[in-house]
Amino acid sequence: MDTDLINAELRRRQGGYGRGGRQRIEEDHVEWLGGVRLGQTTGAPVAMLVPNRDSRLDDLEATPPVHRPRPGHADLAGAAKYGTDDCRNVLERASARQTAARTAAGALASCMLSELGIRVVGYVTAMRDAIVDLDITSENLDEITASRDASSMYCPDAAATAAMEAFVREAKESKDTVGGLCRVHVLGAPMGLGTCMIRSGGLDARLAAAVMSIQAFKSVEIGLGRAVAERWGSDVHDAISFDPSAEGTPSRGFVRETNHAGGIEGGMSNGQPIVVTGAMKPISTLLRGMSSVNLQTKQPEQSDYERSDVCAVSAASVVMQHAVAFEIAAAVLEKFGGDSMDELRSRL
Question: pTM score, two decimals?
Fold first, then answer.
């Protein structure tokens, strides 16, 4: 177990250019409650606590009722679903604050994956017209990761980082918000994770569900994604050849010159790098508000303002990385199983 790694990922989730005041209140870290002894997991369920320093829901001054729902948020639909004109309960439960737990769980899974030679990296790949398209390999992964960590936007390209910062400043000045694209690469995943036998068991379906369940994500793409609809089949599918020298790699020697499928065919990993892209919409809470309706009076009013970010795409890339890592780890355990790391390694 690498507690420092997990805490570092929690700190990364709180960072990035464009974050709001909430991140200065919380200092996220994990406290182990069970399942870990002397720096190793025991095989029992692992329980981690991430303390929340700002949880004053019964303080009316800090958390007053919300009667003017924010367009794009869970406010209106949640108030209607649970039969209330106060959006407070649903907006607090729908908050992305819960992604701290998902990040910690995914970082825990990454500790296991790294022991198996499987590495997962996430970053911001686009914001408006600032776009980075990277071919990440085991040879350049460390360099890419270092460049990402040096970027205020978690984007491994200096020019794109500068452009993204400018977009965030523009949004802040106009009391608006901005979203972007996050991308995750999984290197070293073996062939055969996932299944074509069960509708919900496809690895791509599971990854898509995991990413779409992150707050504010509106689309998920595997490999080329929607671009497959714009090409001929001969320009989409990845031709197969065999290289005996690569038999000991995750691809088992079946090599491809392209990876348009994003490492998944028929719902199963094919030994190529797994590439997932997610689109995060701009944050729903605008400082200038938007046209809304007061749920008590039904009269038109501007939406309420809740403490929020101008841009949280950087943080979202961290959450997405660990949501993907968690699903990959689960798929590995389902396929190979074992009660110890030694047994898991031997089966893999």
Answer: 0.94
